[in-house]
Amino acid sequence: MKKFYFLALSCAALLGFASCNIADDDIKDLQILNGTFTITGSYPDYKLIQDNGTIIYPSAANVSEITDKQGFGDHKRAQFYVNYYPQNVTEENGTVVIRDAELKQGVYFVEKKLLTEAEATEAGLLKEDSIYSVKTVESWLAYGYLNSMFTAYYSKDNGNVINPTVNLYAKCTGDNAVTLTLLYNRRKTIGGDFEGTFPYSFDLTNFDIPGNDSITVTLEMKDRNPSCIKVARKDFYFHAK
Fold first, then answer.
1. What are phi and psi of 51, to 5 degrees?
2. How far apart are CA 194 and CA 192, in angstroms?
3. Where are the beta strands (DSSP E) in 109-231?
4. Of 100, 129, 161, 199, which is the most exposed, with the fewest CB atoms less than 10 Å away?
């Protein structure tokens, strides 16, 4: 069996894996899913919670191989392709649980904390000339993280990749409500622009929202209409352990 390993690439921390040979008799039963997960637990015994609630337990041997015995470190959010067999799937208290799964190709999200307006102002992120529009963006909230998948542009300067940066700040808060604003920024460099995909996750779990009811989150983005979502406090303040 070939060794699995993580390989960092430009324009996002892509995880590259060598493929494993699978016997023909096993292929017909093999299932594959692709999802976004919150990583909990510690090496080598991890529990991955998919954004739809499905729980994945990758085998300790698989984790050891694909991470070269290093584990996932401080990373808490990632997308993975997962191989599993139907006999390892159960339903527990209404939740789908998959054990002895094997993680394949994947990507870490760039993880950042939610900024206050004062922090964003001090960093110069609110200046109009530092904000530019991305091509497309898909955003969703899950387990205490505001996630955004951007199709955006990056630059190369003398062969060095300079990625766009993205930040999130809390524009205003109220009882059981918060308005968040995404800022897209880029350093101006010599050379042409290239299109790429950039996944970001912003940790909301330590940001205090007054009240004791579910929280209405309004998300603002440049050149796009605001969107709203209501989320339970236990999900907004979810802490991955």
1. -60, -20
2. 7
3. 110-113, 115-116, 136-142, 145-157, 160-162, 165-174, 177-185, 193-203, 215-221, 224-231
4. 129
Residue in the structure block whose two tokens are 């041997």: 61
Return the CATH number at 57.
2.40.50.500
For residue 241 the two structure tokens come to 């352990």
Domains of the chain: total: 2
Length of the chain: 241
d(CA 101, CA 83): 6
191 secondary structure, DSSP code:
S
Return the C-alpha torsion angle 152, 73, 44, 235, nearest 10: -70
Q: Which two tokens stand for residue 181?
A: 């604003």
CA distance 72 to 119: 29
Q: Output the CA angle 103-11-224, nearest 5 degrees.
A: 105
* Inter-residue contact 130 to 174 (CB < 8 Å): no
Angle at 218 between CA 216 and CA 223, to 5 degrees: 170
Judgement on whether residues 103 and 154 belong to the same structural domain of the protein: no
pTM of the model: 0.80
In angstroms, how far is CA 205 from the centroid of its own chain? 15
How does pLDDT run across 21-67, given as a tens digit for each residue? 444 455 668 999 999 999 999 999 999 999 999 999 999 999 998 88
